[in-house]
Each structure stands twice: as C-alpha cells, then as structure tokens.
Amino acid sequence: SARLIEGLEAGGDDYLVKPVSVDILEAKLRSVIRTLSLYRQIEESRDDLKRANITLTRANRELDTFAYSVAHDLKAPLRAIDGYRGLLMEDSAERLAPEAKDYLERIGLSVAHMNTLIDDMLVYSRIERGTPKTTTLELKPLIESALQLYQRELDASKVQVTVTATGSLSADRRGIELALRNLIGNAVKFVASEPSPSIEIGFEQNADRQHLWVSDNGIGFDMRHSNRIFDIFQRLHPSDRYPGTGIGLAIVRKAIERMGGRAWAESSPGKGACFHLEWPA
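-> structure tokens emitted (281 positions)
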C-alpha cells in the first residue's frame, strides 16, 4: 500500500484493487488531476505555438513586402541621379572641365555600388526566410554558369581557372548557386593584381558529407580574421582597391548554413586563400 501511494505520488498511473483505502484513492485522484493538468498545458502550448507560427508567417510576408518597397524607393532616386549624370555627360561633355567629368564618373560608380548593395541586401534577406529544397545538380553546368558571370574580368586579368570538380551534388539550387557565385567573384577580385592569377574549384564527397572549395593565389589574409570575414558588412581590405558590398561572404555562410552545413576559409597574407563549403550528403 505504501509503495503504491509512493508510486502514484511520483506520477505513476496504476489500477485500483478493491477494497480501496482512502490514502490510495486520494493518491490516485491526485495523479489523474496532475495528468489532466499536463494535458491542458500541452494543448495550451500547442495553441500558443500555432498562433506564433501564424504571426511569424505574417511577419515574414510583411518583411518581404517591406524589403521590396524599400528597395524600390531607394532605387528610384538612384535611377534619377544616374539619368541626370548621363544627360550631363552627353549634352555638356565638351563644356565640362576634366575635373567635372571625373566627378560625374565617380557619381556613376557610387550609383552602381549602391544598386549592388541594395540587391545583395535583398538576396541576404531572402535566404534568411527561404526554405531549402534539396535536389541533385550536375557540377559542370553549375560551375560554368557561375564562371560566365565573371568572364570579362577573367579574360581581362588572364586568370587561369582549373576545375577538378566533377559529377553531381545534392543541394538547394538557389543556395549553392549563390554561394558558388560569390566565392568565385571573391577569388576573381583578389587575384586580379597577381602576375599569374589562378583559381581552382574542387569537389569531393563521401557517404555523409559533401565538400566544395574555391582556392586562389591572390593577396590572402591573416587567419586571425577568418571568422569575421563571413560577418555582414565586414571588410579586410580598402574598398577603393577591392570594391564590394561586404555582404558576399555573409550570403555564402547563410546559404550553406540553411542547408545544414558550414563555411570556413584558410589563408595567409600573400599566399592566396581557400574557401570551403561542407554540408550533409
């Protein structure tokens, strides 16, 4: 009897055997009441979670609408600025002093930079809210498409590109395209000043993991900053020499983390860098 009461008090649920003592009946009732209370708490938590999900979904839609609205509102005056700049260059070029022409060129570059910054912020925002959809992708067209975006820069700097990656991978298409595009763009930017610039793209996988990397022989960086470079708006080099928005590597990390993976880099000053992506197979 004492053990049965102790078990019921601890949360056990046992049947009653006649004759039933008052102590056992009280313990049984307390156990039932406690169980019912837990059920009610679970139902309330489920309802709270449902309401929170509805609120979060609504907030995401509103944030998406807000982001596009802000992007449109920011780009509208930029288009006007660039339009007037173009008119001045076309209609008054002969009357403008060299210094004035230089100012107009700088305005054009600033407008282009701001447009790119807005686009990158929108991309980063979409990654944060999107749901990854894993599919099988052939590596060759994936890499060729990313390289094509930088063909002009690659040709101008005579960059030697070596692709050892073959076969296929499993990943979210949009996520891996963004990550690869930004890693290649990053490599192109930092090898441009090298006498014999080169970039290598490789891939390997096993039963559990997939590993993609982009290496270059560019200016490199100190490994003390290896984590900071993946933070948004973080830059290690002056923007006048190496232009960019400071969002590219943040997009890379966010995209691969959304696939359950990780991004990291290895480098040393003056000896190039290798950026790695690893995610589940």
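The chain has a mean pLDDT of 83.
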